[in-house]
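Notes from the 1:1 (GR / supervisor)

We went over the backlog. Supervisor wanted to see one worked example end to end before approving the batch request, so GR pasted a single chain during the call. The sequence is below; no edits were made to it. Supervisor asked that the structure be written out right there so they could see what the output format looks like.
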Amino acid sequence: MPSAPSRGQVSKINALYECVEPLERRAPHRHGRDLARGRRPQVFPILVQGPLMLDFSRRKRRIFPALENSELSGANPPALQRLHLWQRAAITVQGCLEWLFVKLHCHGMDPRSTPALLGPPMQNFLHNLADAGRGGGFQTHFVTAREMTNLILAACDEKNGDPCMFRDYRLRPIK
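Structure output shown during the call:
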């Protein structure tokens, strides 16, 4: 998630949440209770959405805003302008605003996107990201899905400080 513009896109967007419907029911992920500081999730798996927004800086046919759906591809290479949208989506555990979660996707690394994801567009983005972090008052942490889950659980358990301290918080690597 997100899957927009697919009809599989759910109405709940830009959220970290747990299902409220029984998991046996059809599409239990369509609704959920947002994760919050001081309240451990009761239903697993938890759902981690990527940013989904309208991008008014990019227009289709010079009229319609483009859709920002967290996709990294040749058609949607990483860029600082997109980073600002991802940050504005403010996907976080409620009450823990200092840790933003930005989940992106590349749909199995389509070979047609290789130049954008491993070539100059990504290299330039990472260089610009490092520069922006130094001057912008934020830090970037690249994590696995397991590590992100641990950070989310730590935020729910009211942990503070450097997120790196919580990469192995509850779920440990399998050796």
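Supervisor's comment: The beta strands are 16-19, 32-34, 46-48, 53-60, 64-68.
Batch request approved.
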